[in-house]
Specification:
Elements: E1 7-11, H1 15-28, E2 32-36, H2 46-49, E3 54-58, H3 67-75, E4 80-84, E5 101-103, H4 108-118
Parallel strand pairs: 1-2, 1-3, 3-4, 4-5
Length: 132
């Protein structure tokens, strides 16, 4: 039986920034990562989102137009970690202040710590305990 690997979505408008996040996270954590643009989240149904253990979500300077995506992710119980370049969101995104924000450019240690902290905790699969 293969070990469980957490699934992380990186919803980022800039491909090179998404690659940077992927590299830093994979250097710190064994996981599966899917890169996509934030608007592509609209195509993910509830069953697909149930497999997601964390979503790094790029928040533009004006977060109002993307609030519906954030709310949908929260409704589907997908743990979120916001990412941004803007000073405006350094203390949180209005209306979603409990979700931490990772600043770009990323500090690898800070990003890894935030990912570990926010990652959905799943129960160990049954039948993996040593029975001897």
């Amino acid at each position: 039986m293969e070990p469980f690997l957490p699934h992380i979505l990186i919803a980022e408008r800039e491909f090179l920034i998404a690659l940077d996040a992927e590299y830093l996270i994979k250097a710190a954590l064994d996981c599966r990562i899917t890169l996509l643009r934030p608007e592509q989240l609209d195509q993910w149904d509830a069953a697909a989102l149930a497999d997601v253990d964390l979503c790094l979500f790029d928040v533009p300077l004006n977060a109002v137009p993307v609030a519906f995506r954030i709310e949908r992710m929260l409704e589907e119980q997908v743990p979120l970690l916001f990412t941004t370049v803007g000073e405006i969101h350094v203390d949180g995104v209005a209306g979603f202040e409990t979700i931490p924000v990772a600043r770009k450019p990323y500090d690898g240690e800070i990003l890894a710590a935030l990912v570990r902290e926010r990652l959905r905790q799943r129960p160990e699969p049954s039948g993996t305990a040593d029975q001897n």
